[in-house]
Design goal:
The protein has one domain (27-210). The chain is globular and about 45 Å long. It has a ten-stranded parallel sheet with strand order 1-4-7-10-13-16-19-22-25-28, with no helix packed on it. It is built from one helix and 29 strands. By secondary structure, the chain is mostly beta strands.
Length: 211
């Protein structure tokens, strides 16, 4: 009982200074300005349209969903997906463990997108940093831009069979940096590149298939 109590106290201190809940979701209404973050355990974070949230939005065992035309600081999820609506700005990063990250058209991520076990799908989106994953497909479509690299990490020693990952660039999408795949005999990565898209840097340890 004491261990559980101290654990909850630690989490409360960790999330101090933000809207923090346990076993409950957080909903921020349309057109709201929130001068703090929003964090929950065993719940989801829902941000409405046309909102401004100046602190981090985090969940353990839940999803994060951002409505259209909203501005947020950073988004983090453990065991849940992150969905970002149209015309949004994320001033930090979007990071998920055991969940994917999806961005609708017109969105801008000022830092990076990172997943451990989850796909990344960006549509008419600009990522000013890198896109990084250990175990997920990466899709850029409709003139999406990654200004730095796409990195596939190996997670050496943690794969029992060959892991197949697909990176797709389509409809005028661009990676301005490199596509870097860490060397791992249990990791096979293919890059599907259509004739309207471009990789300006190098491709390391992956097969490029032009369409």
């Amino acid at each position: 009982m004491h261990i559980k109590r101290y654990g909850l106290l630690f989490l409360a201190l960790l999330f101090a200074g933000c809207n923090f809940k346990i076993n409950s979701s957080i909903r921020i209404r349309d057109n709201s300005v929130v001068k703090s973050g929003a964090s929950t355990i065993n719940g989801s974070v829902y941000i409405g349209d046309n909102c401004t949230v100046t602190g981090k939005c985090r969940t353990i065992n839940g999803i994060v969903r951002v409505g259209d035309n909203s501005r947020v600081k950073s988004l983090q999820s453990v065991n849940g997906n992150i969905g970002i609506g149209r015309g949004c700005t994320v001033r930090g990063s979007a990071e998920s463990v055991n969940g994917g990250v999806e961005c609708d058209p017109g969105t801008e991520i000022m830092r990076k997108i990172r997943t451990v076990n989850g796909d990344v799908l960006i549509d008419s989106t600009k990522v000013r940093g890198s896109v990084e994953t250990y175990n997920g497909d990466v899709t850029l479509k409709n003139h999406s831009v990654v200004e730095r690299d796409i990195r596939i990490k190996s997670g050496k020693g943690k794969r029992s069979s060959v892991q197949h990952i697909v990176i797709s660039l389509m409809n005028g999408s661009v990676v301005e940096g490199d596509i870097e795949v860490e060397e791992d005999p249990m990791l096979e990565v293919k890059v599907h590149l259509d004739d309207s898209s471009q990789i300006k840097g190098e491709v390391r340890n992956a097969e490029v298939i032009k369409k």
